[in-house]
Please model this.
Amino acid sequence: MKPEKNQARLFYRLDEVSRLAGLEPKVIENWENEFSFLNAGRAAGGQKIFRQKDLDVILRLKELLIAEGLTLAGAKRRIEAELEGRTAEPVHPDRLRKTLFEVKEQLEEIAGTLRKRSRKV
Model:
């Protein structure tokens, strides 16, 4: 259940990744420990956040493990090969501007959430 392109975000909380991937949070955390190419960060409140790239990798891992029946080692080799095959695309100025605008919106949303939480404390 991959989000539509116009709904894709730059960052997702662990609970959002869990819901989108249809996996328990503990499974995602175990995969994060197992696979070095999954790099969750931490939000200011200590909450794990994942990038769109990480969500894509998690969805691909699920596909390889469940649909294709690969082992963890086999899925790891496949993903590493797929990631190595990617090349950097030139960034179009309009695309960069749109991405920066989306980052700004998401940072403002995070800041608003943090302000609400700090008022409750």
